[in-house]
Amino acid sequence: MIDAGLPVVLASDFNPGSSPTASIPMIVSLAVTQMKLSVAEAVTAVTVNAAYSLSRGHLVGSLERGKVADFVIHEFNDYRELGYYFGVESAEQVFMGGCRVHAR
């Protein structure tokens, strides 16, 4: 799909029947390790592509002037580590609407 130029969207679809996880880091890890996406492709799929799939790309999904600043700062040396570690709390800080709401 990516090679064909189609935007890929990933989400947790949290429900007890077929997707019993709400963990986006786990979804990213599964996409990288099992679906052979690069970490950049997986992160794009759970952020900006997901936002545009819900017709909210003009408001959220990327860090740009005029958009709502919801983001997480993880404790990694390289963004690609996000695709390989799940089940470990890696979030150092969480921001919603540009305001820090959590710090470890």
List the helices and strands and how they pair.
Elements: H1 24-34, H2 39-46, H3 48-53, E1 71-74, E2 91-96, E3 99-103
Helix pairs in contact: 1-2
What does this structure look like?
This protein is of the alpha+beta class and 104 residues long. It has one domain. It is 24% helix and 14% strand. The protein has three helices and three strands. The protein has helices spanning 24-34, 39-46, 48-53; strands spanning 71-74, 91-96, 99-103. A three-stranded antiparallel β-sheet has the order 1-2-3, with no helix packed on it. Strand 2 and strand 3 (99-103) form a beta hairpin. Helix 1 (24-34) runs antiparallel to helix 2 (39-46). The longest helix is centred in the first third of the chain and has 11 residues, at 24-34. The protein is globular. The model has no long low-confidence stretch (mean pLDDT 91).
CA radius of gyration: 14 Å
Specify the biggest β-sheet: 3 strands, antiparallel
How many structural domains does the protein architecture include? 1
User: Ranges with pLDDT <50 over ≥5 residues?
Assistant: none
Strand order of the largest sheet: 1-2-3
The count of strands amounts to 3
Beta strand % = 5-15%
Helix content: 10-25%
Précis, in short:
This protein has one domain (24-103). Helices cover 24% and strands 14% of the residues.
